[in-house]
Amino acid sequence: MISNSNLINGYLCKDKEKNRIYLSHQNFNCPYCVKPGPKKIYSNLWRLGMHLKTQHQTEPRINEIIENIADLIKRGILREIKN
Ligand SMILES: [Zn+2]
After folding, report:
1. pLDDT tens per residue across span 53-74
2. Of 12 and 71, the one with more pLDDT
3. 54 CA distance to ligand 1 centroid (A)?
4. How far is the CA of 33 from the centre of ligand 1 (A)?
C-alpha cells in the first residue's frame, strides 16, 4: 500500500491522471542493475521510479527515463497489462 506521504514525496501527487499513469500496471526492468540472475520486475512506473531514486540517484538520466515512459503511457503507446 502506498501511503499519502509517499505519493506526495515521490512521483505521485493529487493529480488523478498522473497517478493513473504512474500506477498503470506494466512490467519494467531497471536499466542500471547489472547483477547476474533474473532481474527484479517493477510492476508500475512509481515502483521503478522509487527504485531509481533510492538505488541509482547518481545516474544522470533517471528523470528523463521516467518522464519518457510516462509520456509513452499517456499517449497509449504502452498499454496497461490487464489481469
Ligand atoms: Zn536498479
Report:
1. 999 999 999 999 999 999 999 9
2. 71
3. 9
4. 4
Element (DSSP H or E) covering residue 52: helix 45-55
Whether residue 58 lies inside any domain: the answer is yes
- Give the total number of structural domains in the chain: 1
Q: How far is the CA of 22 from the centre of ligand 1 (A)?
A: 18
Identify whether 55 is part of a domain.
yes
Of residues 9 and 76, more confidently modeled: 76
Strands (E), 7-68: none
Task: Examine residue 38 and state whether it is found in any structural domain, yes or no.
Answer: yes
Output the CA 18–ligand 1 centroid distance in Å: 23
3-state secondary structure of 49: helix
Residue-number span of the structural domain to which 27 is assigned:
17-74
* 82 belongs to a structural domain: no
